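re: ur question from earlier - yeah i can do the single chain one, its not a big deal. heres the input i used so u can compare w yours
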Amino acid sequence: MNVVSALGSVKWIAVLLAVVAYTVLGGVWFAGLFAKPYATALGRESTPKPTQPALFFGGPAVATLFVVTTTAALMSALGIETVVDAVVFALVVGIGYLAANTVIIAINPNMPRPLSYSLISGAYHLVGIVITALILVAF
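and the output i got, formated as tokens:
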């Protein structure tokens, strides 16, 4: 089975549950657990928190839908059906793509603390993709 045909076997209820879980994790992660270190990584520790438009809430959820759908298609195409295989897959994707891409994005002249940002955001994506893979394999 190739990845495109695997989209036909995606269990959309599992995808939606994983999107909700990943999105809620983001809120807890960035607004709760790591709010201050994240603001520091962005160089905004002494700036008042601005009011966020809907894009800052809905945009990440839509992007997460794409990440989760792609993950579901890849897991289906690869025949990943066990918890162990799901976790291994998630760690490979989480470290090899999501966390690594976060580092690539963070290392630029506009990011005051790229390594802190990479650690906070990369760890979020790693945890998020593991949760996603576990939800997807449960269905």
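Helices lie at 3-6, 12-33, 35-41, 55-78, 83-106, 114-138. not sure if urs matches, ping me
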